[in-house]
């Protein structure tokens, strides 16, 4: 039981923190996508290496195209937003240079994103609410447990939706097979009927 809990905790913690480093070629756009649950705090920190002849723009959007964060000539900074619904979010870095490709070196991008429990500032919470270190850790574990329960509830809901979809799909396939069988029978019946009436050979 304890091994299962540790595995689940590790999985959730790994899912809550997202850190990546990559090179961004000039006049190109690179995007990262991630699915995040509803009412979840998302925080991020980014740093783009300096390049005198190029500037990098950062834009974060949801699947509907709504801009959650935008920064032109982004070199270093932080962002934060709270999700309104379960959605796929896209973080895009775009490098632009009037000199063109081949004449400007690639820029190094560091991106560190956190959401859920990992995004919360428990040190600030401890100061505001005057909590002891043990109380802060208990609050953090409580939030983590709630996050795990919510993840399981979401997975259960998705499993039920998939089961319903499979049931509907099976029903549709059965109906189509019946219709195809009926259409085939009608074709053979009408063929025999017209042959009997000598309307066709």
From TrEMBL:
Major place of residence: endoplasmic reticulum
Annotated InterPro entries: Emp24-like (IPR015720), GOLD_dom (IPR009038)
Membrane topology of this protein: Single-pass type I membrane protein
Keyword hit for Manganese: no
Any GO CC annotation of this UniProt entry: endoplasmic reticulum membrane
Localization of this protein: Endoplasmic reticulum membrane; Membrane
Sequence intervals crossing the membrane: 172-190
GOLD domain residues: 29-115
UniProt keywords, alphabetically: Endoplasmic reticulum, Membrane, Signal, Transmembrane, Transmembrane helix
Keyword set includes Signal: yes
SMART domains hit by this protein: EMP24_GP25L
Family: Belongs to the EMP24/GP25L family.
Name assigned to this protein: GOLD domain-containing protein
UniProt gene name: TMED10
């Amino acid at each position: 039981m304890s091994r299962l809990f540790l595995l689940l905790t590790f999985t959730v913690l790994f899912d809550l923190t997202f850190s990546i480093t990559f090179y961004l070629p000039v006049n190109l756009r690179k995007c990262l996508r991630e699915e995040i649950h509803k009412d979840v705090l998302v925080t991020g920190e980014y740093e783009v290496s300096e390049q005198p002849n190029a500037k990098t723009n950062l834009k974060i959007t949801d699947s509907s195209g709504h801009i959650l964060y935008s920064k032109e000539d982004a070199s270093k900074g932080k962002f934060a937003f709270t999700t309104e619904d379960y959605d796929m979010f896209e973080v895009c870095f775009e490098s632009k240079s009037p000199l063109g490709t081949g004449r400007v070196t690639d820029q190094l991008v560091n991106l560190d994103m956190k959401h859920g429990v990992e995004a919360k500032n428990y040190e600030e919470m401890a100061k505001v609410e005057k909590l002891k270190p043990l109380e802060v850790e208990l609050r953090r574990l409580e939030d983590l447990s709630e996050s795990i329960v919510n993840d399981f509830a979401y997975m259960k809901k998705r499993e039920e939706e998939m089961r319903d979809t499979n049931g509907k799909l099976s029903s549709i396939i059965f109906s189509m097979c019946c219709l195809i069988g009926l259409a085939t029978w009608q074709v053979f019946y009408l063929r025999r009927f017209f042959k009997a009436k000598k309307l066709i050979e």
